[in-house]
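Board notes (copied after class):
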Amino acid sequence: MPSKPLPKLVRFLFRHALIGFGLAITFVGLLLAFDIGGIATLIGSSSSGVLATVVLTFSMGLTFSSVQMGFAVMLLAKRDDTFY
């Protein structure tokens, strides 16, 4: 039984959620690389540093993905072609 492709709007939202999550991973990487506020030192000296990094990345990913999807939806009205 062949599966139906996802609707255009779902693909549109999923693509922008992935973009937002990619931006969040980049942001967390830079946050840790530059040790902003001593967070990398704190995470590195903690026994649950990996868990802290995963939770930080997931929460940033959720936030950035939501913002990116909202931003993309709000800009749809300004474009001639929908669901690009």
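Comment from the instructor: Helices lie at 8-33, 39-45, 49-74. Residues 8-76 form one domain.
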